[in-house]
Specification:
The protein is built from six helices and four strands. The chain has 137 residues and is mainly α. The relative contact order is 0.20. Helix 1 runs parallel beside helix 5. The radius of gyration is 15 Å and the shape is globular. The protein has a two-stranded antiparallel sheet with strand order 1-2. The protein has a two-stranded antiparallel sheet with strand order 3-4. The chain has one domain. The structure holds zinc ion. The site of zinc ion has 8 residues, from helix 2.
């Protein structure tokens, strides 16, 4: 069997992690709410929006750093950071926020087995979310 390249593993993890983030907290009909503006929509229509931007490798795949956002907040409004920060402070204890602040300054290189472990972990997490919308895919 051909070994997957690191790049293809990274792409796979990006995809799996994005589905994990967008379905997390969705209602039974598959609707989720943007953490910045509160708009509700089918999870497929939103983005996995990073609090510390995705180029920070130390927090790129940290579930505390990535949440459901509508495309206009994540894209056109460049993350709608003020409201995102409000959500973060309302949701996480200071120790988590300190953690993320520390981690986003670290440069993390994921190895092949790190990537495989994370793919497995987030695939499993998604499998256990049973919504009618998810069953289609
Ligand atoms: Zn929004």
């Amino acid at each position: 069997m051909k070994k997957k390249t690191l790049k293809s593993l990274r792409n796979r993890l990006d995809a799996v992690f994005s589905v994990f983030v967008r379905t997390r907290g969705a209602d039974p009909q598959g609707y989720n709410s943007c953490v910045s503006c509160g708009r509700k929509m089918p999870w497929q229509d939103g983005d996995a929006g990073h609090y510390y931007r995705r180029q920070h490798t130390g927090t790129r795949f940290d579930p505390r750093n990535v949440h459901f956002q509508c495309k206009s907040c994540n894209g056109f409004r460049a993350g709608n950071v003020a409201s995102y920060a409000r959500y973060m402070y309302a949701t996480y204890p200071q120790s988590d926020l300190d953690d993320l602040d520390f981690l986003h300054r670290q440069s993390t290189k994921l190895t092949r087995s790190d990537l495989e472990d994370l793919i497995e972990k987030y695939s499993m997490a998604v499998v256990h979310i049973k919504t009618p919308v998810l069953c289609r895919s």
